[in-house]
Amino acid sequence: MDALLFWIVNDLPPRFMAAGLFEAARYAIGTLGVFFLVWILLEPWLRSRKIRKPTPRSKQIRMELINSFKTVCVFVSLDILLFEFGSADVLKKYDDVSDYGWVWFFLSVPVAIVLHDAYFYWAHRAMHHPKLYKFFHLTHHRSHNPTPFTAYSFAPSEAAVQYAFVPLMLLFVPLHGTALFTVLGIMIFKNASGHCGYELFPRGTTRNPILKHSTTVTHHDMHHEKANGNYGFYFTWWDRWMGTEHADYEARFNAVTEKGRQMAVAPA
Questions:
Q1: Which residues contact 3 (CB under 8 A, 6 or more apart)?
Q2: In 3-state terms, what secondary structure has residue 222?
């Protein structure tokens, strides 16, 4: 009991501080970075690529920021548990590259991305089940026309589901700390950009033999618009294999990008 009290008083506060700074910084850099880049800096040139109008109002963004704060709190709490399990060698997070070599160090990042895409598709699709939707996923879909801040606009229950991928992966897949940091960075930037409401992919993406496998901004925007289908995060594979991709996705993407051929000129 004394050891537990000592841990709570002496060890827990600095760990919460470190985890809080990390999670808040990750969210802020990802969402604010996309917001300033897409919505402010490049908006005059991207205006014709706005997928849907009108642009969400400040009331929605305030709601998203409040929900995002709750999500960060959930992530911080789970980071503490993850650290404790990791220190007990339950999870396969390592710090010495020589443990698995440089080849695996670089290969582990795309492996983690592919695994996350599979996890996201099935967890996301499951949360759309009528018996689970209200408890897990309804909060996220209150952002019908999303913004970069929609990225973390979750109910606490969904935040836990989203977070669960990391410890589940680390139970089986060894990942260097820097590789894990890279994967987490990719996650937030993909999440924020996927909700930005402006198509960022080039014309012809859906017909390109390589790029067509990527989920575009239009792909996920249609999910928010219709509240079903297009469940993928990074790739369109699972939606195509499972028949959950919207039949008019390619036509919608082409319409948005063709509309953007004559890009708006920045105001003088």
A1: none
A2: helix
Taking the C-alpha atoms of residue 129 and residue 82, their distance in angstroms, rounded to an integer, is 29
Spatial distance between the Cα atoms of 72 and 29, rounded to a whole number of angstroms: 13
**Residue position matching structure tokens 């895409």:** 117
How many residues are given for the chain?
A: 268
Q: For 170-209, how does the pLDDT look when each residue is reduced to its tens digit (9 = 90+)?
A: 999 999 999 999 999 999 999 999 999 999 999 999 999 9
DSSP H helices, 88-226, are 101-127, 130-136, 138-141, 156-170, 177-194, 217-226
Nearest to 200 by CA among 216, 180, 189: 216
Q: What phi, psi does 180 have (nearest 5°)?
A: -65, -45
Q: What is the reported pTM? A: 0.89
Question: Rounded CA gap, 25 and 31, in Å?
Answer: 10
CB 201 within 8 A of CB 257: yes
Question: How many Cβ atoms from other residues are within 10 Å of residue 104's Cβ?
Answer: 16
Please compute the mean of the pLDDT values over residues 37-46 and round it to a whole number.
Answer: 94
